[in-house]
Design a protein that fits this description.
- The chain is an alpha/beta fold.
- The protein has three domains: 87 residues, no CATH class; 104 residues, Butyryl-CoA Dehydrogenase, subunit A, domain 2 (Beta Barrel), CATH 2.40.110.10; 147 residues, Up-down Bundle (Butyryl-CoA Dehydrogenase, subunit A, domain 3).
- It contains nine helices and seven strands; from the N terminus they run ααααβββββββααααα.
- Strands 1, 2, 3, 4, 5, 6 and 7 form a seven-stranded mixed beta sheet that branches.
- The longest helix has 35 residues.
- 38% of the residues are buried.
- The structure holds flavin-adenine dinucleotide (FAD).
- The site of flavin-adenine dinucleotide has 19 residues, from β1, β3 and α9.
Length: 380
Amino acid sequence: MPDFLPDDINQQLAIATELVKDCLEPLDKRLNEESISQKEAAAQVRHASQEKGIFYKTQPQEFGGHPTSTLELTALRELFSAANVSTSAHVFGPGPGVLANVSEPMASQYLAPVLAGEIQGAFAFTEPADALEPTWAVRSENDLLVTGQKSYVTGGDSADFMAVFLNVRADAENEKGTAMVIIDKDLEGVSTEKDFTSLDGSGHQSITFDKVRVPIANVVGRIGEGLPRALGNIGNVRLLVAAQACGLMMWTLNYVENQVMKPHRSGTPLGMKEGVRLRLSDMRIDAFAARSMLYRTARLADAGENIINETIAVKIFSTEAAGRVVDSAVQLIGGQALVAGHPLEKLYRQIRSYRLIEGASDLLRLNLIKGKLELGKGRV
Ligand SMILES: Cc1cc2nc3c(=O)[nH]c(=O)nc-3n(C[C@H](O)[C@H](O)[C@H](O)COP(=O)(O)OP(=O)(O)OC[C@H]3O[C@@H](n4cnc5c(N)ncnc54)[C@H](O)[C@@H]3O)c2cc1C
């Protein structure tokens, strides 16, 4: 499926393909054979990616990064996802996330060490379903006193701090409203309620805040800006999720098409049967539609357009399409595809979480149509 990308991006994709062949795939194989540790494999990937200049593409220029266009980043993300190897998680350097453009002292205290890989943050947005009120804070002159719970903090276990979305309550003198607040994991009153793993294999924590005293300097931007800052960060990640979903669809198509053209006990390769071909065709149409949306959205971003609605649409469509494609692939491969350890068994679990992370599909649908019917902002 050609995307008619500019020459400079095609050159970067060729370099990325070399990285996949020479480094990511061999290390992934060694990880599966348990002949190398996760830590050592991650270090080798980071080193190889730095040498090829890809590592720095997600990092701001003022911190030594070489940020690139949304189109190039999207194409690279799709390519690494299409390799379907766990080692691709370490290719890009840590990005700023919600810390983008923070000023001192937060820049030195959090942003610079995050970008250097010295400390790690986690994003704490989702509240428990039965929370009586969202996580909140009251303000004194120099502090916020934070109370509440976040139920699904990915990577909370290894995080040094969390970027927490909360509501600052009104008082007589101070500002009120939503805020993104950086909260260190080791502060008094922060406790882990439970550690858990989700279907896709990723690890999370549920975290409680009991009157945690946080310096007011740890508010990202200003009080009242929490929601746009959180949604800005989520919006960037939604496009990343869409690129990954498209990449996984491409891997799945290549895998299945290869398999169904092999000899089958019926005497005819399954790929020669019309019913199977109809399914394969539907899978390709899904992937083509999702990728067309993805690349159009990336190009709009680079043209300086607001892509909120397009990003919602492509996130919903590509993750649901990937669900259909992987499900069809399991059906065509048969029982072997569901044996523990089969690549499709793993993908089937992984792709399911994509319809919930960074916004559940139906809630995103409601946002999209609200923009159209009520806010006059709908472009999709
Ligand atoms: C692998 C994984 C990683 C995650 N990582 C993080 C993380 O790092 N940080 C974080 O903060 N969160 C994280 N989450 C949580 C994720 O963001 C939420 O699960 C998701 O936003 C849905 O919220 P919820 O689970 O509270 O479901 P709810 O908001 O309770 O919704 C459940 C379902 O109810 C329906 N629904 C809800 N409201 C409406 C409505 N108004 N109209 C119609 N239908 C509705 C929808 O079908 C929805 O899917 C992660 C989740 C997963 C699976």
